[in-house]
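User: I've been going back and forth on whether these two constructs are worth ordering. Before I decide, could you fold them both?

Assistant: Sure. I'll take them in the order you sent them. The first construct and its structure tokens:
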Amino acid sequence: MDIYTTSMNDKKILLVDDEVDILNLLEAVLLKESFEKIYKATCGHDAIKICKEIKPDIIILDIMMPDIDGFEVCRILRQITLVPIIFLSARTEDVDKLLGLGIGGDDYITKPFSPKEVAFRIKAHFRRSEYMAIKDQVKEKNVISFGDIEINGKKGEVKKSGIAITLTAKEYSLLLYLAQNPNQILSKNKIFQKVWGDDFEGYDNTLMVHIRHLRQKIEDDSANPKHIITVKGLGYKLIIEDK
């Protein structure tokens, strides 16, 4: 199962394209990716109307449409929403891409495209939004919460189910670094540079030991962790699901 399924299947996606076959193809692929709330419009006016009604979390917007083009639709939508807008277009000129991004678009995909690519781009935007929300939480409250774990950066304290747990300085620094970069694969080298510094040797075994100790302290089942995940051959990531 995709680790983002439980946090993303309630996201509302608005697809706008005058080619019904493209809309249906995108819808089919997104449904397979566990997105459930998908809305479709075949013209700019309908897109604006639906956007006002449903308040989507992301908009996939074709440029060439029969009534008003996607650029103008984007200008209008930016007056009522700040959600990500991904342009779809057969135009490949850089000037069109720059125009689309300049008027408020967040991404640009040229036709022909892979529907899977669109799905991956959508997920990437949701992950980025989630990450920024967590960063804002850290900045404003200096507290990060996931599952039954709470990290209070101001107090230097970690709690599990409301009960303080004891971590060494390096365990705390490692957990905090992972939590400040949630849902991202962090290489062993990068983790070690940030937590231990560049001059320490023998990091691979040291890091594995600290990861194991952290799992024993914060996971319900350290042998089957649900938060600190090993990505074989790449590194580790801390899973924080959107609530």
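The second construct, handled the same way:
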Amino acid sequence: MALHDDQLAAIADVAAIGAPVWLRGGWAMDFFLGRITREHRDVDFFAWAADAPRIIEKITAMGYALLPEPPHDQQLDFLRDGVDLSFALVDRDEAGHVVVAGGPWAGERWPDGMLDGPAATLGGIRFAVVDPYAQMEIKRRMPEWVPGLPRRPKDAEDVARLAAALGVVATD
């Protein structure tokens, strides 16, 4: 079985945990586009920090190991049979904006409307995805938000794919 088949099966596992979770990164783009565009190193999600204990309980019960890093107030990383799941934890500030839940960037705002993306289907699996406009902003701004992180060619390609699907001009 190819890695993307294992990753799709893992996405189906996460869909069954009963907590609000959103696909982000390359898999969010693929679900939005309705096709697999490239190989993915891992499967990235956003989840509410308050749901972290339930996520840990449900995902470890499926045989995934909770990795010790990064700190669990920021992100939860799991591994099973070569499939890496990563849950970036979010919260809301006093004004109701989605923010980074913990770590050195705690309280920093994510793009407005980020969690208002559509549910999308790929491989018979339906899953909520990060809003594609927010996804493009995240991919464009990550090197700005994380100094020293180079702009990756795959991020520019993903922005171009999303922009084409949305019928907008991809700006950098």
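Notes on the second construct follow. The two ends are 36 Å apart (CA to CA). The helical segments are 3-15, 25-33, 52-61, 132-145, 153-166.
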